[in-house]
Amino acid sequence: MKSTIKRYIESCLLCKQYNVTLNNRYGHLRLIAPPEGPFLLIGIDYCGPLKRTPRENYSETSYCSATTKQQTAYDHNRLDPQYKIGDKVLTRIHGNRGKLDPKFSPIPKVHVADLRPIIIN
């Protein structure tokens, strides 16, 4: 079966152009030249076809829409914090932490400037 497909592709000019075999080149790997400036070399990760949810939506898009809905509801119900310069503020600890670890830092930080985002020191 594979040999007949290979023969058919070799006989057709369009098939030769668009059905390129994706084999790695033989030999050692070659280094990529470092970029000459910032953001000139962009790496892209590709993930295969996404799974469909029971309602025939893609799982990634439904996750993003659910996250957006939750964020807008949270922002709508939350009061805008009113800080003055010199106020002491507890900051939230982000990242990996255990279930019983504290959510906020035990040492308060001082509010430095009235800018958005809030700057603390």
Mind explaining what this structure looks like?
There is one protein chain. The protein is an alpha+beta fold and 121 residues long. Among the domains are: 43-78, no CATH class; 82-121, no CATH class. The chain contains 3 helices and 3 strands. The protein has helices at 2-11, 13-18, 59-77; strands at residues 88-89, 109-113, 119-120. A 3-stranded antiparallel β-sheet has the order 1-2-3, with no helix packed on it. β2 (109-113) and β3 form a beta hairpin. This is Integrase zinc-binding domain-containing protein.
Task: From the structure above, extract its key features.
121 residues; alpha+beta; 3-stranded antiparallel β-sheet; 3 helices; elongated; Integrase zinc-binding domain-containing protein
Helix content: 25-40%
Radius of gyration: 27 Å
**What's the number of helices?**
3
Which residues form runs of ≥5 with pLDDT under 50? none
What structural class should be given to the helix and strand makeup? alpha+beta
Q: Judging from the principal axes of the Cα atoms, what is the shape?
A: elongated
Average pLDDT:
72
- Tell me the number of strands: 3
Order of helices and strands: HHHEEE
| First and last CA, distance | 69 Å
Protein name: Integrase zinc-binding domain-containing protein
Organism: Rotaria magnacalcarata
Short description:
With 121 residues, the chain is α+β, with helices and mostly antiparallel strands. Among the domains are: 36 residues, no CATH class; 40 residues, no CATH class. The protein is built from three helices and three strands.
